[in-house]
Each structure stands twice: as structure tokens, then as C-alpha cells.
Amino acid sequence: MNKNQNSRVALVRTNDRIAGVTKAIELLGLNPVMGKAVALKPNFNTADPFPASTHNGTLRTLIITLQQMGATKITVADRSGPADTRQVMEEKGIFKMAKQLGFEAINLDESGPEAWVRVQPQGSHWARGFDIARLYREAECVVETCCLKTHQFGGHFTMSLKCTVGMVSRANMKELHSSPHQRKLIAEMNTAYSPSLIVLDGIEAFVNGGPMTGTKAAAGVMLAGSDRIAVDATGVAILRSLGTTPEVTRGPVFAQEQIARAVELGLGISTPEQIEFVADDKESADFSKQLKDILLKK
């Protein structure tokens, strides 16, 4: 997108994820999936209960909604870590859900060499680039659904930008996790593709710990957008509104390293002023205003 344009983020205050998913997408007013094959990226790094991993209710509702919006095919693909991907997907019942709803479920760890594409972004902190799943690199349409949580192992937070890690080969993880530039590397992975729709499930959040276990808080919100920077910045503001880690609290939201590097790379908007919240009830509108104040704080 043009980094000088505003970016809409639909915000729904709710504890009902089924209604929340459908309402947020409706409010966003986009249908990027009509007539297209969709590659859908969930958060399956482990099978630990939500918000550690994508809630099955959110995934099911999102898939049904995308089918109703005219997606010709939906493929759900991920690579877990540190857990075994097949075990995670089986434990979460994803293969059974695929048969029930008529989508394809792919364990990226079981994909051959031809399923990966080497990407070396110019000026990146990756020594020799990284391998991203061809499915996402070449998809007609990418949809992401992510959680709202802190990350105690160097990411600081894990939302839509960090959801990309599961698209990248396990062979690249040693470099990522040992690098002093981990948060910049996360942003740089995102240059390999561009999502058309992001749904962030913030019914509950980890405000400390994460990504597998942590201190839970009831956030009661569902977001939808198409700009990773706008969605993640909003997520950071929500965590701050709940009380969170020093790392996520420190400095302006747009100075957070994942977000700042994503801005440098032109992955979306460049300032918090460009976030345009869309809400259709007083509670959601009031919360949007509270978040905007946090986002604009210097």
C-alpha cells in the first residue's frame, strides 16, 4: 500500500469470537478473496490453548466466512516451532476440520525442497536470506489470523508480523533466534509476501510471558485490517492499555523495533496518525479513541 495513505482497522469490542470475526470483516468493507485461491496462515507454533495458538472457533468462522465471500479454494498451512507441526495440527483437530469444511491443511515441515523459495531482501540483516513457503510467496491471496500476545524469547510481541515466522523454513530458525537483530529479521521476512486480510483475535491476550504460556488478560476485542503495521501497532496499544512488559511499554509504539523496521521497509503506514479505526457501537468507538491516544503518545 501507499505509505502515505490512511489504513482502516476495524475494531469490535466483544467476547463472542464468532460474531466478532464476521463483524470485523464486515466493518472493514473489503472482499479481497472473491474468485481467488486463498493461502491462510494461522498461529500454530504450538498446540497450547488460545491465546498461545489460534482458537479453533476463530479459524472455523474465518474459513466459513471466506468461503461465503467467494474464495475458490482455501489452504491452511503452517510450520510449528519448537513443537512438531504434525502433532500440533493433529492435537488441534485441523485435519478433521479440513475434511468437515472442505479446505486443504498442509504441514510445511513435510514439504519437499521445491516447496521453498530463497529470498534475500536488499540491505537485510539476514546473512544469506531465508526460505519462505512457495505457497505464500506465490499465493493469489494471503489471509492471516494471529493472536495478541507478548513474546519472552526476543520478539517482545507476536502478532501479524511475527506470524510470518511460521511461513519460513525451520532451517532458518537458528539464525533468527541467535541474532541480536531478531526483531528486525522478523520484519524483513515480511517483504516476501503481502497479506490481503488480517484478523487478530484479541478476546484474550498474554500480557506477559508468551508465546506458549503467559499471564492472561481479558482484552475483549477483535481486529481486522490489511496493513500489518497498523494491526500490530494497534495490538501493542491494546497490550499497553492492559498493562504489559517493560519492553512492550517502552517509548512510542512506532519505535518498537518490529514496527520501526517494517516502516523502513515500506510494508504499510508510516505514522500512527494514519490508522483509521472503524467501529459501529459506542463501546468500540470509545476503546478506539483510547487506543489512538496511546498510539499518538510520544
List the helices and strands and how they pair.
Elements: E1 7-13, H1 17-28, E2 37-41, H2 56-68, E3 73-78, H3 85-91, H4 94-101, E4 104-107, E5 116-119, E6 130-133, H5 134-137, E7 141-151, E8 156-158, H6 160-163, H7 173-178, H8 182-189, E9 197-209, E10 214-225, H9 228-242, H10 246-249, H11 257-264, E11 275-278, H12 282-296
Parallel strand pairs: 1-11, 2-3, 2-7, 3-4, 7-9
Antiparallel strand pairs: 1-10, 5-6, 7-8, 9-10
Helix pairs in contact: 1-2, 8-11, 9-12
Q: How would you explain this protein's 3D organization?
A:
With 298 residues, this protein is of the alpha/beta class. It has a single domain (7-296), classed as 3-Layer(aba) Sandwich (Rossmann fold), CATH 3.40.50. The chain is 35% helix and 24% strand. It is built from twelve helices and eleven strands. The protein has helices spanning 17-28, 56-68, 85-91, 94-101, 134-137, 160-163, 173-178, 182-189, 228-242, 246-249, 257-264, 282-296; strands spanning 7-13, 37-41, 73-78, 104-107, 116-119, 130-133, 141-151, 156-158, 197-209, 214-225, 275-278. Strands 1, 2, 3, 4, 7, 8, 9, 10 and 11 form a nine-stranded mixed sheet that branches. It has a two-stranded antiparallel sheet with strand order 5-6. The two termini are 25 Å apart. The model has no long low-confidence stretch (mean pLDDT 97).
